[in-house]
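Practice problem 4.
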């Protein structure tokens, strides 16, 4: 196991990263987490279990984790990648928080089917058997189902010796802000403060905004934009005749109106006007390499549900490195400027801007040195 700061320095020296003072200020906190984990005593069985010769070892105490928060595009995701890489032999999982919670909810459903009264504990213990270090990207709580179980879930994970490191755009006290039954969620904020060091990444540089994109975002969504998407479809598919793509997701079907090979095309309303969720969008992201979306409208309280689905869709596409080509009512930063959800959309707008770059989505080991700043996204 190495240190995150050493790995960061090597990548800077190799031209793969651009040194950033604010990021460098965070590195000792990340190193400290790994140092604690390395120094932790090995798991052992209790005296009674040892005497009887039964039972699994008692979990070692969890090292104090890290909650890294700050504005969009400051390099938090890149730092999380380095944390997972530096973990070495420590059983570690690096996962987007949205995806992790989808897995947890699926596990809870299975536990209910088995008639278990305490559904959270066995699911959390299953995670702990495989992982000592959980590295989450983009912790945010918007779903009441997640909000009601995260406190209990993370308490069991900590008790089982799992250390958590996460990024977020918000200080802990702003998680699930104005959410339904938020008073039941508040103990989770206290748990974060108790079991994780809260650190702000206060960089003045937004690396995503500093990059120049290619012609993949067309605004406004007029006839000229439609013609541009038609041309992109023709170029990408060789004028193939489009056919519907139906994807099976947890016993139901999600259909994209047009696809050829691993290129698909859909209107905003086909994707976000229907009651689809994270699992559906993750399945879409796994099924295609390029997605064309027609007619992204202005977003506001009047189409709040559709806007939330669009945010979730972009998260899934971003994590899977799916290339996005779209027509929209305006530039990403101007799509959702006021009302509930506009703050959260700043991250989505930043990702949409980053995804416009011609080099976005390339494998890190294939990126030439002059494009190294993309690793800071």
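Answer key:
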């Amino acid at each position: 196991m190495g240190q995150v700061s050493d790995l960061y320095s090597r990548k800077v020296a190799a031209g793969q990263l651009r040194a950033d003072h604010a990021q460098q200020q965070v590195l000792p906190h990340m190193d400290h987490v790994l140092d604690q984990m390395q120094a932790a005593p090995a798991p052992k069985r209790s005296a009674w279990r040892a005497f009887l010769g039964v039972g699994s070892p008692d979990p070692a105490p969890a090292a104090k984790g890290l909650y890294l928060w700050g504005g969009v595009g400051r390099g938090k995701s890149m730092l999380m990648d380095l944390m997972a890489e530096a973990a070495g032999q420590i059983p570690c999982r690096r996962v987007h928080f949205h995806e992790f919670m989808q897995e947890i909810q699926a596990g809870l459903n299975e536990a209910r089917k088995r008639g278990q009264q305490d559904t959270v504990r066995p699911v959390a213990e299953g995670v702990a058997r495989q992982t000592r270090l959980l590295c989450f990207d983009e912790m945010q709580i918007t779903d009441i189902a997640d909000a009601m179980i995260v406190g209990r879930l993370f308490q069991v994970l900590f008790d089982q010796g799992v250390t958590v490191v996460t990024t977020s755009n918000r200080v802990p006290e702003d998680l699930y802000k104005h959410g339904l039954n938020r008073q039941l969620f508040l103990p989770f904020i206290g748990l974060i403060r108790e079991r994780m060091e809260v650190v702000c990444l206060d960089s003045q540089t937004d690396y995503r905004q500093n990059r120049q994109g290619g012609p993949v975002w067309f605004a406004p969504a007029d006839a000229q934009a439609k013609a541009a998407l038609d041309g992109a479809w023709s170029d990408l598919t060789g004028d193939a005749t489009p056919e519907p793509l139906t994807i099976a997701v947890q016993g139901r079907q999600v259909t994209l109106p047009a696809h050829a090979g691993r290129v698909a095309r859909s209107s905003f309303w086909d994707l976000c006007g229907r009651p689809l969720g994270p699992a559906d969008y993750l399945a879409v992201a796994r099924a295609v390499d390029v997605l064309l979306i027609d007619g992204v409208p202005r977003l506001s309280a009047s189409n709040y549900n559709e806007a939330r689905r669009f945010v979730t869709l972009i998260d899934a596409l971003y994590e899977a490195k799916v290339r996005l080509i779209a027509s929209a009512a305006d530039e990403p930063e101007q799509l959702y400027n006021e009302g509930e959800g506009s703050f959260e959309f700043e991250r989505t707008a930043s990702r949409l801007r980053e995804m416009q770059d011609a080099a976005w989505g390339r494998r890190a080991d294939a990126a030439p040195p002059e494009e190294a700043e993309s690793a800071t996204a």
